[in-house]
Amino acid sequence: GRVTSLALLSRSDLLASGSQDKTIKIWYIAAKKLHSTLKGHKGSVDAIDLLTDGQLLSASSDTTVKVWDAELGLELMSLRGHCGGVSALAELPN
Length: 94
Hints:
mainly beta, 0% helix, globular
């Protein structure tokens, strides 16, 4: 699917890409190889963002925001409650 979003992970050798195919792919930049594929959304992944603690956020047309440990490939949390798709993310300063 078409790539909709990108985020450089805290380990600067990894890049995350969100896609219309409902996945997030984690890439080794220097090697130009796929590290892992994060699955869990039921709609396109329209935005991704890296939190200062290193966790990855993803927003989807399936109305959810998910929190991931991108390096381990684990979904940590799914936030529900929006009536429509979520298309943007931002971390608020403390």
